[in-house]
Specification:
Number of strands: 0
Number of domains: 2
Structural class: mainly alpha
Order of helices and strands: HHHHHH
Distance between the termini: 77 Å
Helix content: over 70%
Largest sheet: none
Strand content: under 5%
Radius of gyration: 28 Å
Length: about 120
């Protein structure tokens, strides 16, 4: 990340979090820590942070975000649906038909209930 991009990045943080202080020493530190990070990646991580936190980010939250923060709600939902689908498929593979004697007893119980109503 370039020095000007770091300054713009910190200005975005200041806009989102008015109590965030931008000092000359702070700009140098942030730039040193973010120098290897792509500006667009940093912006994306900051946007995710702003959506999920009422506190200004730390350098580590931008440089090394938690893995779950990178996924959108829809991606997480898609993963859950896929896991559910696989679990159902596995269940169906292992399922066995109801034993005949249990089926007969169940039908007899249902017949008794229908007659009593």
């Amino acid at each position: 990340m370039k020095q000007t991009e770091t300054a713009n990045f910190l200005a975005m943080i200041k806009t989102a979090y008015p109590f965030f202080e931008v000092t000359e020493a702070g700009v140098r530190l942030w730039h040193t820590m973010l120098i290897d990070l792509d500006y667009k990646t940093a912006q994306k991580r900051l946007a995710n942070h702003i959506r999920s936190s009422k506190f200004a980010p730390t350098i580590s939250e931008i440089v090394n975000p938690a893995p779950f923060e990178e996924k959108s709600f829809y991606e997480l939902q898609r993963e859950q649906e896929e896991a559910d689908r696989l679990a159902l498929a596995e269940y169906n593979e292992k399922a066995v038909p109801m034993p005949e004697h249990v089926k007969i007893q169940l039908e007899q119980l249902l017949d008794k209930k229908v007659i009593r109503k």
